[in-house]
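Continuing the batch. This is chain 6 of the set; chains 1 through 5 are on the previous pages. Same settings as before, nothing changed between runs. Recording input and output for traceability.
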Amino acid sequence: MQPTQLGPYKIRSRLGRGGMGAVYEAEDSGSGRLVAVKTLAAHLGDDAGLRRRFAAEIDTLKALRHPGIVQLLAFGEEDGVPYFAMELVRGKSARAIGNVQSLLVLLKGLPTAYNRDLQEDKERIFDSIDTLEAVLGVAGPLVAGTSFDRQRIAATIERGHLDATSLMEALIAQGVPQRTAHETVGHLVRRAMTRGVSLAELSDEEFSRDYAGWNGSLRGALGASRAVERMASFGSTGPAAVAEQISAWRRRLGVAVAP
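Output for chain 6:
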């Protein structure tokens, strides 16, 4: 059950859930400031080991000094629920992307100007480095204790029709114009939503009503896992591409590669 008040913080909504508890967006009753509040789940409050882990997170955050990114604001316990409050981490990607845009515009003008213009790159580069180091310094401690409920993820991931784009691309690969493929898949998604099922649960007859050329091979594009597996371009989110990037970065950083 979601708490409504933890110390001076009024809980507004849940931002996420980890292995030990949840993180909420909350409002400081005194200042109105928005903060992130992490809790240890009430039913785990009697577990001494988890309490020590939660306390260790607080000790780690005490040592961090990155105002605007993350900073421990307060910690305590309310009705047997340990919690700590920190600043919300928002907007740092926008800042870094803005710096990239500034550098691109600066470099674009070099052929018709003087290389002395590059004196303007220092602020953007150093700011990006400082921001990245601060964000990475925060990310590790915050996610170190996170675990994923894989069974729940697997049970719910099909509800969002993540394979709609994959099916559209499969239709295009069979010669269907993009505009027609997009419209066809839109009709199929609407049909699946009306019935409360996934695309893969539609029958071949239902598919054929919206696409006369439907054939069994197109089912290879259905299902969230298959949709991800079809991402085969460089830098994509396909399992093979992700594994390749992880391996490459482990080698680059001198970290042992798992067998």
